[in-house]
Amino acid sequence: MDEENYRAARQLAMRRLRNYICLFVAILLTGTSSLLLSLYEREPYHTSILTGQGWVMELLEGHPERIRCELGVRRHVFVALIEELQSLGYNRSKYVSLEEQLAIFLYTSVTGLTIRHVGERFQRSNETISR
Predict the structure, then answer these.
(1) Fewer beta carbons within 10 Å, N or C terminal of the chain?
(2) Would you write out the chain's pLDDT as a tens digit for each of its 131 residues?
(3) For the chain, first and last CA: distance in Å?
């Protein structure tokens, strides 16, 4: 009789263990699938057709007063600053041109806008703007 009770208790323990393992696997699969789906369903935030680089080129090629109004310097001063930065060894980063980097700095200095607002203007992430 004791052996029969032992077997029954063991079978019950094994059944519970299988149930816990199944529950754990189900939780893992649900979490993993939710994570993977969220990666594929991400919606881009910066969707403007005019990129930051495009806006800088537009300022450089446009009316001379426009670049002064937006960046606080005249075109020839902007070009001289770029040349000076290049002579000091600065150049483009992996994704952002030196002209756009300078424009981000000047635009932030002139406007006093938050990183988020400057990021929207240049279509860049907050991390890129803060660098």
Answers:
(1) N
(2) 688 888 888 888 899 999 889 888 888 888 787 777 766 667 777 777 888 999 999 999 999 999 999 999 999 999 999 999 999 999 998 899 999 999 999 999 999 999 999 999 999 988 989 88
(3) 76
